[in-house]
Amino acid sequence: MEENRxxxxxxxxxxxxxxxxxxxxxxxxxxxxTVIRVESMVHPETLRLATPFVDGVPDINKSGxxxxxxxxxxxxxxxxxxxxARAIAGKLVKWADIIIESFVPGVMDKWGLSYKDVRKIxxxxxxxxxxxxxxxxxxxxxxxxxxxxxxxxxxxxxTGWPDGEPVGPYSAYxxxxxxNYLLISILAALDYRSRTxxxxxxxxxxxxxxxxxLVPALLDYDVNKRVATRIGxxxxxxxxxxxxxxxxxxxxxxxxxxxNDEWVSFCKVIxxxxxxxxxxFATIKARKENEDELNxxxxxxxxxxxxxxxxxxxxxxxxxxxxxxxxxxxxxxxQLKHRNHFVVLDHREMGPHxxxxxxxxxxxxxxxxxxxxxxxxEHNEYVLKEILGMSDDDIADLVVEGVLE
Length: 405
Description:
The protein is α/β, with parallel strands linked by helices. The protein has 18 helices and 11 strands.
């Protein structure tokens, strides 16, 4: 298929960091947009300092974490404390169709790059700001990462064991779910601009975005005054429902039985043991009342069997089940291989490495990563000379003055 990317010709100026914003700009880059990441040697992007590193040796250009979220982008370093750096950023605004930033409210305004400022440079610009709690309100100035806002949004209250402390979901959880909203809002703004010729400003609250994934719990409290809390791997309406230890070291299979028909099928797979006919497990209500004992009996069966075999047998009779996979499993997963989910990119310092592609395929367009993540400031010369038209002498002066740090 001839390479044809749906966002070819779109220019994006990226002032974001960590996961949420960079995920959005990587998707735009994968789909053809030219994305310029504005970074700084004085204050390196958080993920450039995050593990894992190639060979386990910390290096600002060898973070696997950074590499995943920053493929298909160019990198320019600007010390925004310098007046000339801000002037360069202003020139890039004129080049850009979209500006995305994830600073605490007020930072872009201090640099003369607020929406009010940039629309004077380019009236139809689309600008998106993403921060913890939005650009206005009593808590808008709070700093933090996805771990903090995940706790605020209720996720830590729901994750963990009933008799234990909140443990929270994996890492900066809201970063991985909130980017969807920001991406679709930018595409909506692009559609609006294509119809009206007008740009607009997008103000995303990561806090509010994260709440959308807890709507059932919020509605339950609003209507029934029930406060959802930690229940481990249990589910209010399904039983058995949990992750069960299987044959081998640290191997598990998740099984969820949602109704009586599935219970009958589940029992058939496990051989209709005598205990499955016990009155303690005759109805969903009875099974919920005796759930701990039921889980113990289920695990007596699963612990002697291969997790993948259990998954296959359960799925064949209509019972939801899945192996708990680790990183090694995922790279070997036949479904992911079939869909070419992982592709190999060649990084200038890390060498060849695998990276995930977009989570959807386009029948008439290419949307795989175009090239590996950039080294810090790797494209300074290209951006300054080819895009902004500066001379070698101009660039040399900027280096001497510390503008490109």
